[in-house]
Amino acid sequence: MQSLYILLPIALFFCFAGLGLFVWSMNSKQFDDLEREAQRILEIDTPPRD
Asked: Measuring CA to CA, how many Å separate 25 from each of 7, 12, 16, 22?
């Protein structure tokens, strides 16, 4: 029972940290254009990036 006093706050911390990172990625437009990146992988004649 005493291990719950340690594990529960740790689990809640990781839950809120993951949720915070997800919200941050949505606000910084990480998931806006998924189709372009999927098609870019398939292109053969792409010039190398600097």
From this structure: 27, 20, 14, 5
Condensed to tens digits (0 to 9), the pLDDT of residues 13-41 reads: 999 999 999 999 989 988 787 788 778 77
Residue with tokens 């292109």: 43
* Alpha-carbon gap, residue 2 to 14, rounded angstroms: 19
Q: pLDDT-based confidence at 12, cuts 50/70/90?
A: very high
Rounded Cα gap, residues 15 and 21, in angstroms: 10
Q: Tokens at residue 22, please?
A: 């997800």
Of 49, 50, 28, 27, nearest to 40 (Cα)? 49
